[in-house]
């Protein structure tokens, strides 16, 4: 019960006190009392019709408030004109007649309408003032009846215009907030689309290449067993399939980690990768970190790690048994990762093809594209002395 009463009270008060249902109800009752009792003698029927019509039109505002300007604005203008016409002949009990009170209230409400231009407000109020003056001139009581009502009318008009300016600023602020909210929604939608594209790219790079290469190896092994009964060759391809599955699983985990943004810090991830190659491939790999480590975007971390993995795999293939150096450098605005290994005589250090090779690698061409997606660059070739093969990737950071 208490909550229901509280909700009812909130509805009556509204968000705008000047336009709240409670304010309009109280105002309407006071103006009804003003209509019925603020006269000293009998009121002619025609005057009841004119002023009663003015109050009846005013009730349109009482019902709709400021929510229906196309209906409320003409009603307020009509109420002002009829009230001005009924002001002079009204048999009042004092110097302030019922129609002039109705006129002041209507002008105050009309002048603060933000849906009406200032020129329209001034024109309508000026016409009402002219009607008031003409009525007093015809009655021969210009001095005693017009000066004070017109002066108060001007004051009420100025107060209403001041209030209108304040409400207009609030309205513009609300519109700006709404535009900002819509811009944020569009930004969030664009971010979601980018994230979908990123997920699609990650899944394509990992699953399409991994499963495609794995399928080829299994088909070859099946052909060797069914057509040539070559168990040794089939086992070789099955072992390659096993390596492809392991490498694909590792890369899939890296992609999922990147999507979840829980990739470990870059120096830690590089050291873990190097340690894995030392342990699993018996490689001699040194890991060097230069500069002050800092946080790097997860997408850039994954791209650098895949570049390092590709370079280490190629080093194991083209320079088996040689010492490899992985160097990670943090500069003020860039992060550089380089993998260096000696060029052995009789080997071909040329850049591998783009597609996956037999070891499950992507090829440096594909890595260039991935590094470019995070705003970086990748180069591969002989070092300055011509004795080492160097793969270098740089990303913003």
What do you see in this structure?
It catalyses: ATP + protein L-histidine = ADP + protein N-phospho-L-histidine. It is an enzyme of class 2 (transferase). Its EC number is 2.7.13.3. One of its GO terms (molecular function) is kinase activity. It comes from Nocardia jiangxiensis. With about 400 residues, the chain is α+β, with helices and mostly antiparallel strands. The chain has two domains: about 15-185, no CATH class; about 265-395, 2-Layer Sandwich (Heat Shock Protein 90). About 70% of the residues lie in helices and about 10% in strands. The protein has eleven helices and five strands. The chain has helices at about 1-15, 20-35, 45-65, 70-85, 100-110, 120-140, 140-230, 230-260, 265-280, 300-320, 365-375, and strands at about 285-290, 325-330, 335-340, 375-380, 390-395. It has a five-stranded mixed β-sheet. Strand 2 (about 325-330) and strand 3 (about 335-340) form a beta hairpin. Helix 8 (about 230-260) runs antiparallel to helix 10 and helix 10 runs antiparallel to helix 11 (about 365-375). The longest helix has about 90 residues, at about 140-230. It is rod-shaped, with a radius of gyration of 42 Å. Mean pLDDT is about 80; it is low at about 350-360.
